[in-house]
Amino acid sequence: MNIxxxxxxxxxxRFGLPVPAGRVATTSEEAVSLAREIGLPAxxxxxxxxxxxxxxxxxxxxRTDDEVRKHADAILGMDIKGHxxxxxxxxxxxxxxxxxxxxxLIDRNSKRVLLMASAEGGxxxxxxAKETPEKIFKQPIDPRFGLLEHEALHLGLQLCPSDIRKxxxxxxxxxxxxxxxxxxxxxxxxxxxxxxxxxxxxxxxxAKMNLDDNAQFRHPDYEELRDLExxxxxxxxxxxxxxxxxxxxxxxGCIVNxxxxxxxxxDLVQYYGGMPANFxxxxxxSNPDKVVNALNIILADPNVRAxxxxxxxxxxxxxxxxxxxxxxxxxxxxxxxxxxxLTGTNEEQARQMLAETDLVSASTMDEAVQKAIEVVx
Amino acid sequence: xxxxxxATTKVVVQGITGRDGSFHTRSMLDYGTDIVAGVTPGRGGxxxxxxxxxxxxxxxxxxxxxxxASVIFVPPFAAAGAIYEAxxxxxDLIVCITEGVPTVDMVKVMPFLDERGVRLIGPNCPGIINPxxxxxxxxxxxxxxxxxxxxxxxxxxxxxxxxxxxxxxxLGQSSCLGIGGDPVLGxxxxxxxxxxxxxxxxxxxxxxxxxxxxAEERAxxxxxxxxxxxxxxxxAGRTAPPGKRMGHAGAIVSGGTGTAAEKKMxxxxxxIPVADRPVDIVPQLREIWT
Lengths: 377, 290
Known about the structure:
The complex is a heterodimer of chains A (377) and B (290). Chain A is of the alpha+beta class and 377 residues long. Chain A has helices spanning 5-14, 28-38, 65-75, 125-131, 149-159, 164-184, 233-240, 259-271, 288-299, 318-331, 347-355, 365-376, and strands at residues 2-3, 22-25, 42-46, 59-62, 79-80, 83-84, 88-92, 98-107, 112-118, 136-141, 186-196, 202-204, 207-211, 244-247, 252-256, 278-281, 306-313, 338-344, 360-362. In chain A, the strands form 5 sheets. In chain A, strands 1, 8, 9, 10, 11, 12 and 13 form a 7-stranded antiparallel beta sheet that branches. The radius of gyration of chain B is 19 Å and the shape is globular.
């Protein structure tokens, strides 16, 4: 789950990272009164779950009430990469002398949390990584001890070789960020940039965090952080129905068991010249309710002109799955053709059951995909 | 002997009395896996299906039965705990089927396993099957066939799809292993491929990758210089949009890396053909394996 800058900053604050005061406004009047409270000059920052806000004009420096009003008005309702801005963060503006990058993520290869730091702050770190990888310093964190003081200071000194005061502040920020990461079950945590004022005071002025969906059972409060308005309605319905779903732009709705097979099915639709409408992993169950939920979510998309079931029945029996699909489709009024491919245990029985319905049956993945494309026309 | 386990491996099932645990234990027993014990705290002293003794702890199970491998079917919140317990009780191969384990838990588990020299397969994986010998996990036993092809995959049902095609085309398998779909995994693509390289029963390799991370690229690099058996690959997720998690926690294209196109390029540069469709894997393997 991705969270907003202001939410990530709240976590940062709780762990003692130096974050400038700030609050969220949803109207320009509110923005002005918050800016007065926090003190001018102030920043108005769009809160959307995507990068590149600055470039899109979603981050503005304001000296006066009028500027706050004008910029908040312009930013609220703005479209940034398909995300509508509904909230702005009003936060203190600082005099910036230097910018650094501090980030942490899960490194699949070392199987550890990896700290990355660079003196090239304030720009996209992916770009730094591509063009000047030698400017990024890395430290895998041993989960038993956390980020040790000397490891952090060593990195701080690599970023700031001539100023021990700044190096220490960077080191402290890194140690605190490492604590935030582990404690919050993050999958990504970034301060970009961490800045120093001319008086050498350090501040985390931007924050980004992704939280591990798998760890939500021990953070029940995370549910409140979810921005339901930013979520695609179909993806939200799928999440609530415990289905793994991603909306795409095509017209063939796909219902598949297993994530890998679901991706391979989408790929095959495209291979034969069709366009998948979605990714959907229905899991191993043959429960008709789950099938109904999946069909409802897919059919809510007016682009969908055919449904393709691709089920490999391994442990799950194909006749069970066929029964589930038949029950579900009888309960609903479905106007688009449905192609069903069932392979594996008891596939013959399953095919006989399907033969007595309007559903189009196929015996291989390729045949099913081609039939679905054919009916879409 | 195929990889990681064989017909003589003695197995304990953690979470044997749960819904999934009991179902898949029956199916493993049917396949001939030597399941000598089950563990469910509070159920010690019972018998599972009248033939497998249940213990309260893994340590007791190991002491009483000599089990050396464990298969874990416990809920996500208990998975890390079950892994620590198995590793501390003298188990040297752990297969964790559980889906939805927090990544930070796995990060913490890893050094504990390394210190004890314990191999973990998973989590969020279908497990391993060495056809005709042993099945640890949830792969359907009826679609495999003993033979010489090693199969390594990041997926579940897609693996079954590919294995099924191998089997109906008379290409049996030495071992089929699903490493799991999570970002942090006990046994990696590379670990598995290296094990296949050392295995004298494995004469060809099928690797099924997907978007996210760079495991396929690393494997390609290693295979180029170290493996002299024929290899065919398949990569799922060519049509996946960037930044979206495609079911598996590890299947995400981020910052423009981890794409199917990059993986295909790296594999082909290493001389490994990449099948466009699952159905092309068998003919492509036949073409290079003479």
